[in-house]
Every structure is written in C-alpha cells, then in structure tokens.
Target: DNA repair and recombination protein RAD54-like
Amino acid sequence: QRRSLAPSQLAKRKAGDEDEEEEEEDWHPPTSRKRQKAASETGSGECYRSPFRKPLAQLTNRPHCLDSSQHEAFIRSILSKPFKVPIPNYKGPLGLRSLGVKRAGLRGPLHDPLEEGALVLYEPPVLSAHDQLKIDKDKAPVHVVVDPVLSRVLRPHQREGVKFLWDCVTSRRIPGSHGCIMADEMGLGKTLQCITLMWTLLRQSPDCKPEIEKALVVSPSSLVRNWYNEVEKWLGGRIQPLAIDGGSKEEIDRKLVGFMNQRGLRVPSPILIISYETFRLHAEVLQKGSVGLVICDEGHRLKNSENQTYQALNSLNTPRRVLISGTPIQNDLLEYFSLVHFVNSGILGTAQEFKRHFEMPILKGRDADASEAERHKGEERLKELISIVNRCLIRRTSDILSKYLPVKIEQVVCCRLTPLQTELYKNFLKQAKPVEELKEGKISVSSLSSITSLKKLCNHPALIYDKCVEEEEGFMGALDLFPAGYSTKSVEPQLSGKMLVLDYILAVTKSTSNDKVVLVSNYTQTLDLFEKLCRNRRYLYVRLDGTMSIKKRAKIVERFNSPSSPEFIFMLSSKAGGCGLNLIGANRLVMFDPDWNPANDEQAMARVWRDGQKKMCYIYRLLSTGTIEEKIFQRQTHKKALSSCVVDEEQDVERHFSLGELKELFTLSETTTSDTHDKIKCRRCVNGHQVRPPPDGSDCTSDLSQWHHCADKRGLQDSVLKAAWDAAVTFTFHHHSHEEQRGIP
Model:
C-alpha cells in the first residue's frame, strides 16, 4: 500500500526537485475556480499556506474594534426617529402628541372652545371657503379659551369680568389703550378674575403663542402672602409665583434682577408679587426691562399722581395695566382722574383739562345753591364722563352676592353720651374755640387736633385723661369732673356710652350663640381699651395692628377663621387691616368709630360678609349721639353720593346735606335722639317713630332715608341689639342686604 504524503511534505519535495519530472500523479486538494485564478495571478509558487488553515494572527495587546462607520450609522438611525411618549393618545400641555416636534397642519386653540361651559375670550372671524384657500395656515388666528380648571369655578359675573378685562388689555375695547379699572365692590372675587386673566395671557393668544412673558402684581404688604396663596389655590402648582415681602436690599435686588432676566416661552416664575413699599424702593431694577402686565391691588393708593409710588409705577415699560379697587372715588373727582389716567393716559385729557371740562361743572351742578342752568350743565358733563370711563371700568355692586351669601343686617347705632362725657365735651367747646380759627371753611392745624380730641372723647374719656392731667387747651380744670380715685388702669365701660353698648353686645353674643366678633377702630389706644375689657371679661382675643409682621398676620387670620379655634374676638386697626383681609370666621363686626373716608369704613365692614361666609352677618356702626361723630358720618354720605353718581350711575341720589360748614362740627346736640335723622327730614316717621316701611327694592346700599328708623327697640331684627338697647342706645337705622332666598345653595 502506498504511503501518502502530508501537504507540507509535498511542498518540501516540490521545492527540492523542481526540475524533476514526477512519474506519478500526486493528490491535490480540490480548489475553487476563484482560488485557482487568484493563485495564478499571484504566482503559483509564492503561497505555501494551506487553504484549510487560518493564518496565525500577530500577538499584540490591542483590543478588537468595531467598524466606526457601522456604529455611526446605527446611532444616526436611532436619532432620526422622534421620541414618542409611551402613553396611548397622550396629549401634552401644548397639545402636541410627541415632544420636540412641530405639529403639522392647522394651528389649534389650547383648549376646546366647543366644550360644555367653555369661556371663549376670542373667536376668529368666520372665513368663506374661498378665503380659507387663500389664508396662510401658519398665520391663521385661533380661539382663546380660558383654562377649564378656572372656567369651571367662575361665577357668571366673574366670567363677564374676565372677558371685559381681556378685551381691555388686548386693546379691543379702546384701540390704542391697554388698561382698565376693576372696580367691583368687595367680596365679588376680583382676585380670582385677575388670576384667570394672567394665566390666560401667559399661555395663549390668537397668534397661538403666549400674549405676555411675565406679570407683576403690586399690593399692600398685608396682601402679598394672600395673593401667593390664591395663585397656588386656583392654579394648583401649574405655576410658581415669586412673592417678595421682606429681606435685605441686596437679596431683593438679586431676586428682581433674576425675575427681569427671564426670557422665552416657558418662564420659570412668570408672576412677581410685591408690596407697594418694596416696589417703590426697588423700582429702578424693574424699570430696566419690560413686564407684560401690571396689576395694582387696592389701587386707590394711586389716587395722588404726585406721590412717588404713582410715579414709579407710571414709569414702568408696561402698557397693559389693571387697577383693582372696590372704592374708586374716595375724596374728589381729581383723584378719580389720577386712577383713570394711570391705566389709560390721555382718554380724559390732562389734569387741567379734566378739571375745567368735568370737575368744576359737575361739582357746581351738585351744590345745593346751584342754578338750573348749572345743574343741567353738570348733568351733561357727568353723562359725558360716565360714557368715556365706562369703556375701561367695570363695576358690579354686592347685590349680585345675594344669590351666594347669607343675609347681612347693617345697623347704625346712635349711643347716648354719659354725663361725664357730656360735661367734658361742653367744657372743651367753651375753652378751645376752634370755630374762630376756621377761615372760609379751611381747616387749620389746631382745629384738626381739636377734632381728634373730640373723637377720642366720644370713644372713652380715658383716651383724653392725660390731656386733662396736663391741662392742655380745652381741658383746663377737666380733671375735677372725673370720679374720685379714677385710674386709667381699669377700663370702666360705664363712663362711655359706646363702650357700655359694646360691653352688652359682646356679653349677649357670648352667652347666647357661638358667633365670633370683629372689633374695628381707627385708634390703637381704643384697641388697648378693648384688650382691657376682654381681659376683665375673660374673652379670648387676637389683635392685628400696624406693628405686626406680615407673616404673623397671615397665621393669626388663618387660626381665627378655623371653626375649632377658641378666640372669640378679633381686634383690628382699620388702617392696618382694613384692606383685603378675609375674616369669615366671624359674622358680627363692630365699627367703633367712623372714618372721614367712607371707603375705609366700607373696606373694614367687608371683612366678614364675603365669599365663604355661611352665617347671617350683623354689622354695628356705633356713633355718639349729637356729636362730631354724627357730623363725620353725614359728611361720608356726601362722598358716597358722589361715588355712586360717577361709578354706580345711580339716578336721583338724594343729597340731604349741603357740603356743610366746618363750624357745625364743633356743636353738641344734647336733646336729639339722632342728629342724622333730624337732618334727613324724614317723611316716613311721625314724632320720631316710623309709620311707613322703607320703599320696596331698597336695601343697605340705599340712601339712609330709605332704611328702617327705630326710636325704640320694637322694630329691631337683631336680638343682641335689642338686649343692649337700654344700656345707652337712643336711635338705630337698620336694613338688610337682600331678602332671604330659600332653596338657593
């Protein structure tokens, strides 16, 4: 048997005897045609490698690498596909089905305008089929629809208010003017309407992009926290407002610079809430850039166009301005002009033009001694003013609330002076002689201090005891009138008619119900007396005045409103807490002394009768009979008549009092049961007793002559006041806000 050679042996033999001719044919492995061809090209004898073996790789430490071009191609294929949210039918906040991809086709509104209850602020014009073909699809306007989260909670009057505000700030009501005044009365939800406006402007417009990037809310310092809470409450974390209510100058500047530097579609903190005081001090930072919208809460602070706050706000680079004020007219028409001029400069001309064209004729026509021609001219100018202003001012009165709120009974209670108060009062009028200082109806400094002394005496003789000790002007020898051994350490309510009535009201309320009471006064000294009274009677109380920090205010208000809190009384300084506070935990409010400005009193009285109140409310306005307090109250009715004439457009506002001489302030009517009732010349009362009820349709917003008049306790509706009547009450005016409506939730 023949031995076959291994391939390597064969190769050696071939190399050894190349020229020898082999007799026998050796076995060759079958090779493919390609290999044969390759071998013939490279030369048959050069490759001695077996086709069955892989060549040995050179030993190195280099790692094996993938082909880079393959890897790049693979990554590109991943990135070319848009990211899809792995939730079926997902629709993001901008209405896109996938993130980062521009939606193809027609632009659409942010919310469905056809949804039930949708509040549509803007509807694009209906286009014919021909126009639809011509229009650029990327420029077609879309519906502006309020976020359903908010439109579901808006009441009918609030929906109307939001539409009005939006029309004004987008210049659809008055071309070229972007401002408006939201002058709804207290308790109608002005804050919610403005939050709805801000949220809509920050998210959408007919151009399918946000109308504004940033908004600024300026409010009294006590309401900064309240605004922050309201935004959180209604928008539920959809937006992060920035509230600044304290801190060092550097820290506040840093926050403001950060706020102003925000740009783009999605600004992290698009709403800045700041107090008037902080704004005034840091205005230059905010004036460097532009803000889309400015909202000024309690805007009647801007009634004086000369003050720094007004000028700082006016120099902001912001055409869209909303001014919120439940009481736009406070003292005169020129202040009213300042407010309108701030939001829409120029629509009433300059201040001089306004005074000449509107203010002078209107006031002349309203004077008691005006001629027929002057009266007619005044009415004409008033109509003209109302027609201009109504284009940028919306005002609804609290009548609307009657559907949602319990009945409010408002009572003006005249309280008899005690013998000590009467003697001190007469003594003062004899000695001080401020009447001689009144020249042509102008108040001098000394007569102003005399007014303050008389007001304090009406509250309680303890408030002027120090002046009696020092024998100041008007109080010479007055110390002898005080009872022997008198000390200001104890409160002694029996020395003041009003304090006596208050003591009864509190005692009867505490013993017969679980109602809570708010006590309001203009003087912190009077609040000190309330504290002494509460400690004597062991009533639990909280007190809020100008000395309390903003954060602490918010905490005590929250605690008092809780039904489980034991506090019975909330004491309030009308200057510190009159604006915007929500005290619905209480349903009885006592205004211990009147303010010259009716707006301050109305603000304070609206603390308890507002949205969220569940119980019937009782308001007590205490006045000392026949004194300066009744005169102040009468002067208030004149200012109020002016306000309702311009703002509420009420017809036939009866004005029973002429502007009144200041001399009259310094008189005392000892025999009257109510000087105010005497001045009204009431036709419904005979010998001081009411014989005809008030006219149908009248309520506590009507003129005082249309209220119930009670010279005794028989006609009273309030059992607490009935019980307190015999203490020192001489006369009461009372009326309700509306008839109680059964069956309305």
Q: What stands out?
A: The chain has a mean pLDDT of 80. The CA atoms of residues 48 and 354 lie 114 Å apart. Residues 402-416+493-650+657-736 form a domain with the Rossmann fold fold (CATH 3.40.50.300). Residues 628-648 form the longest helix (21 residues).
